[in-house]
């Protein structure tokens, strides 16, 4: 045991690290739109490049909610929200700093990493609403099922929160913000609907496929916490 008390468990630190890493990565790579063709159906889904990374935040938050409770999960969500501003400030400062000889093209750097006002606004509003809903829905389903059916609260909370996230982000970023601030042209309604549907289908499929991973991670980390707790008591 250290002078300041027992060493914190590695599991919550790792999950919070995954949550924040996936979150800021999604912000940085969402400027690229990707097209994914569904096997067999042949349907092409168009979505931001950060869709996969952002799905990692739901995986992490569901594991955190299951292992450490609603209060801790909400704190992680709110810290993550603040870290968005830290990331954006650091990116902005780097863009504004003068480029040295041998640097990559500053214009290309700014285009790739400088998130547009519309994207940032839509992302932050959607994040705050959807991530807090994810934690709320997860624990309400847990209460209704008396702690059983982890798969149901994982899929149910993630599916509904991702619908909220997708709808808010797309509408704010591509319709509301351009109309209010004049930062680009608002997309037609049918294009907005297409983006919402494409993104949501992709996110929902990811939520379904990550359910076994949530089960595996929760079981492994719960065992790890138990072992670390026993070691701490032995110390």
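-> sequence recovered:
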């Amino acid at each position: 045991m250290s002078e300041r008390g027992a060493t914190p468990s590695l599991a919550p630190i790792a999950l919070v690290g995954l949550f924040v890493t996936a979150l800021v990565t999604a912000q940085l790579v969402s400027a690229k739109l990707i097209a994914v063709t569904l096997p067999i159906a042949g349907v092409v889904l168009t979505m931001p490049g950060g869709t996969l990374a952002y799905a990692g935040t739901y995986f992490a938050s569901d594991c955190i909610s299951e292992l450490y409770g609603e209060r801790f999960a909400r704190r992680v969500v709110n810290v993550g929200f603040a870290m968005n501003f830290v990331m954006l400030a650091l990116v902005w400062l780097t863009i504004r700093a003068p480029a040295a000889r041998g640097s990559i093209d500053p214009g290309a750097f700014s285009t790739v990493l400088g998130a547009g006002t519309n994207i940032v606004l839509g992302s932050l509003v959607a994040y705050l609403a959807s991530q807090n809903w994810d934690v709320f829905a997860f624990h309400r389903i847990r209460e209704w099922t008396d702690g059983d059916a982890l798969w149901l609260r994982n899929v149910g909370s993630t599916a509904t929160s991702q619908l909220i996230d997708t709808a808010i982000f797309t509408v704010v970023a591509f319709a509301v913000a351009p109309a209010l601030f004049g930062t680009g042209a608002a997309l037609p309604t049918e294009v907005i609907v297409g983006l919402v549907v494409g993104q949501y289908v992709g996110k929902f499929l990811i939520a379904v496929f990550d359910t076994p991973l949530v089960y595996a991670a929760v079981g492994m980390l719960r065992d790890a916490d138990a072992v670390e707790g026993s070691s701490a008591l032995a110390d």
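The beta strands are 33-37, 44-48.
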